[in-house]
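User: Um, any thoughts?
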Amino acid sequence: MVMHFSYSTTRMLYVFLWISLCLCRMGLCNILQEKQTDFGLRVFSEVSHSSPDQNLAFSPYGISSILGMAQLGASGSTLKALTSSMGFSLQERGAPRQQRLIQRDLSREDAVQLISGVMVDRKLSMEKSFRRGLGKAYQSTPNQLDFSEPETALAVINAWVADYTEGMIPDFLSSGALTEDTRLVLLNAIHFRGLWKVPFDPRMTQERLFHCANGSSVPVPMMSITQRFNYGDFVTEDGVDYDVIEVPYEGDSLSMLLVSPFEEDVPLSALTKGLGGKTLQQWRNGLKKVNRQLALPRFTIDTQLDLKPALTQMGLGNLFSQKNADFSRITTEEPLCVSKVLQRTKIEVDEEGTKGSAATAAIIFSRMAVEEITLDRPFLFLIQHKPTGAVLFMGQVNQPQQH
C-alpha cells in the first residue's frame, strides 16, 4: 500500500481501480443502489481496519460497478459468492435496466460523468448473454484489441483512461500489467467536479493545529465558514459519541458528509466498524438544520490499494481460485479467474470545492497459467449523490501533514 498526502489550492479527485481476471422502476433502482452502496461501504470498512491510522481514499461506487460487471459473466459458485457478498445480482430479471437507470441518473448531474468500456481480445468469442448484459446495464459495447501485442494494447487502454479522466490518470496501467494471455479488460470511468454551494472565503483560512492519529499535532491551513448546515450527533453501539455535518455542492443533489468523534483520542476505527448502508440511512434521518461554524482543513489524499485481501475476507475468495472460479458466462472457450483487485484514489479539497475522476478496469487473462465544528482531529468524508444514494467517493483523514 502506498499513500501520499499533501495540500493544494487546486481541487482534484481521481480514483483508479482495476481488477485482473485470469485463467490460473425507481423504487427498484433505489433498492439496487442501496445494496450497492452498502457493499461499497462494507469494503471500505474492511480496508480501513487494515490501515486504521493512515490516510485513505476510496470509491464505493467504483468497486460495486466493476464487480457488477464481473457478475454478468459469473456462473455457479462464483456467481453465488458474488450475489451473497454483494447482496444483489445483475443477472436477475430487470436488474440490468435498473443499473442503467442509476447510471443515467448520475450522468445527468452536471458535476458527474460516467462511462463504461470493454476491450476484448480479437480472438476471444464472447457469449451473447454477456454482451447483452453489458449493453443493458452499462451501455457498453466491446471494442477489439490485439493482446498478442500487450504493450500496444496497454497504450490504447491508458489513452482511453487518460481521455475520460481528463488527464488525471495518464498512466493507468504500468508496463507488464497486460500479457499475451489477457483476454478482456472491463473499464469504467467517473469524472466529478463539484463546487461548494457556499464557498469558503480564502481570507478566513488560517493556520491551526490538527491532532493526528499518531498523537502528534501539526499546523494545517484550516478553512472556516459559518452558515446553516444539516447536522446531527450520534452514538455507536459501543457508546462512542460522534457528529455528522453535511456540506452541499452547487445544485444540492451532491454533498460531502464529514464524520468525526467528539473526543480527540478516539480512533476512526471506532466509527468505521460495522459501517454500512443502514449507518448512512441513520445519518440521513438524524440530520437537522442548525447554525454552525465549520472549520475544515484543505487536504489531498493519494491512495493505492490492493483490495484482494479485503474481498477475500468478505467471502469472495472464490473469484481468485484457479480451481473453482467460474466465469463461463463470459466465454466457454477457456476458464477464467480473478488475479488482482487494485484501486487508485486521489482527492483534493479546497475553498472552492472538489474536482475528480475515477477509472475502473477489469483485466481478464487465460488461466492456463455557532457552535463550532472543528475538524482538527481524524475524520471521515463521503461524497454522495442524494437522489440515488450512491456514494461516489469516501475516505479517512488521519495525518494531514503526510506527503
